[in-house]
Amino acid sequence: MTNRFLWCLTVATALLTTTILSGQITPKKLTAQRTTKRVLIDGKLDEAAWQDAAKAEEYIEFRPVVGRVESYENRTESFLMYDDQGIYFGGTCYERNVDSIAKELSGRDGFGMNDYIGLIFDTYNDQLNGFEYFVTPLGEQWDAKMTSNQNSNNGGEDFSWNAVWKSAVVLHDKGWTFEMFLPYSAIRFSKDKVQDWGLNITRRRRKTEQQYTWSPIDPNVNGFLTQEGTWTGITDIKPPLRLQLSPYFSIYGNHFPANLPGQNNWTSQVSGGLDLKLGLNQAFTLDATLIPDFGQVQSDNQVLNLTPFEVKFNENRAFFTEGTELFGKGNLVYSRRIGGRPINLHKAYENVDDSEKIVNNPAESKLINASKISGRTKNGLGIGVLNAITRAQFASIENLETKSVRQVETDPLTNYNILVLDQTLKNNSSVSFINTSVLRGSSNYNANVSAGLFSFFDKKNTYNLSGGAALSNLTHKGPEGRNVMGYQHTLHFGKNSGKFTFNYNQELADTKFNSNDLGYFTNNNYINHNLHVGYRYNEPKGWYNRLFLNFNSHISSLFAPIGGLESTYQNSRVQFNMNAQTKKLMWFGMMLNYRPHEHDFYEPRREGYLFRRGSSVTIGGWVETNQAKKYSVVLELFERKFFNFYDVNGLDLFIGQTYRFSSKFSINHRLGFTPRPKNVGFTSILADQSILFALRKINTIDNVLNLKYNFTNKMGLTFRLRHYVSTVENKSFFTLNPNGSLNPTNEITQNFNRNVNYFNIDMVYTWQFAPGSFMNVVWKNATYYGADSPRDGYFENLGNTLDADQNNNLSLKVIYFFDYLQLRGKKSKKE
């Protein structure tokens, strides 16, 4: 009873000290404590050093109930201290009932359904950039870089960033106890003698979805880092020499075709390389990869692309995802361009005559090496430099008579460069400069894009004015070389804090702007206006925990008329959304969208034409059950109806199911079904240059099965199977008029039907046998099946796909992590 009384008294005092007369939250402060005593990271907190550590307690809930204090039975006690080598964080997450602890082995940076506790450091105290370190009840680690600027393209958390640090957890009848040690090599900070860092600590209980922080958070205020507390008086810590090497050794065996008995179709490859991290000073790090190996990354989700634009794939290569928040500013970089499709891939076919055939035409360029330098000075200047080189790529063309082979260059030796300067300012504001350049050998053109960005908040962190302008320049070589310069800008104004929020933005690009060589670019020549108005209820009331309402509208026009067409209007929409979390921790939402008629200048694939679509209405909703349950489901259903004489319509259905058999084993199934009983779109350009459209039936199924079994918090096995099938059955044909109308035609004898299947298996065994060191064994299967018959049923398509030529790949890769400081420490101990 005495402990409970003292707890209530402490909590009451905390509530008084975390508010001021204006009603705003006062960030907390914690005095830094240095220790000279030894600490063993075993999760037990039994060392004498913890008695002298600063105590961080009195955690405050910020969801679902804002401002509510932890109960005594479920309280959090945590301790923070430091020494010459790093930072120690430990404590106990109490639970009234240990069965209430949500725990699942999900792998490093794999969230799963886990309780967790973690530190958030803003080492430069700029309220814009932070480092996060989390641990779960089963001892798994997460870490991330965090950005607070709401209008940056990489705002949020980057969990692809990884550091090497230690942790341990012990489960017991009162909850779970944890210890973490963060070496200074795992964080970036200045070399000032006395430092104050931004600090917050957060704990989440997944079965109740309660989340607490040490320094209180108001969810109606813009940003998480803007509300952090402070760790004060950190004295005489020195950024260490950061030299980390990760050499790798890999073996690949490839079997193609894998389903032809009696044939030896195996090929093999042995390779090795090196990843390096070198601290250039206290803040900047050089990352380099020599002879990179990306053969074990997850297979792309290939699709049948019926649009006029390129499919954008996820970046799965660790070097291009880890710690790249600076390089994403301005949305000018699509890293898949580096080592992507050769720019003259299809031109090889133009060089083939009747006496020749192409025997090899690689679809990807080979990366020779890549390096990046990134960091931020104590004055808030972030600098990022990235350089990558790909080797020249050639297609092999064989003479059918002489069997001689000649080479045709499809991609020259290419150098990719990115430069970013990002200066943080007071009030969570910043200005940035970005430059990207692509320098090519041979006679191919070079490309350069430069952009300036700004983001300004008022003193209360409520209103924001932001935007930017970019110039692109394509330099064509040769005696008739020319420069093509284009312009693009964005302008944004909005209210980011409070229950009521809004933002308006304008986007403009002229007819010559082009960022495609190092960015993802679909089209230029537009003026877009967007408005978003929202209202959020973050306090539980009645049947809901949280409720969000918003209205948005959009209108787009051409910047300049094209192809002699008078119309510049493209499209517009108005949309209403509602999303809510119920008291039972179920999420659901609904959407209503109306689009007036549209002028599509890109679907015809030829300048001087447009395609006129009728107005349409989309209505739909989604529901997500409590993810903390053993079985959970996500369901999305949307229906779009066009109002025109084609009677076009379409349905989008998605079902995702997860079942957790235990903390080690779970299964997830995701099924997407998008039937289009009536759809109108581009089909082909005929010999007389007329544009052929079709009224067609499209059915697409995307079927993904994921299995996960983790043996320990350092070893696990994942299995991912995906079968994608899309069929197109053309019912009737039309030729397109320049004004967007269609003329029926009965002269087409080719059916232009499509039946496309992609089948992939990615099976990965991973073992972290030492800090930062991994052994991965990967099996990948890739199969493609295509036909002009769209009538095959799903299982018949699956059977035909499995009977097609399969490409099986088995690989072993060992990565060993060396830290110079650890090696030096071991040597000193021996001496």
UniProtKB/TrEMBL annotation:
Specify the signal sequence span. Answer: 1-23
Question: Which keywords does UniProt give here?
Answer: Signal
A matching Pfam family: DUF5916
For the DUF5916 domain, which residue ranges apply? 239-825
UniProt name for this protein: DUF5916 domain-containing protein
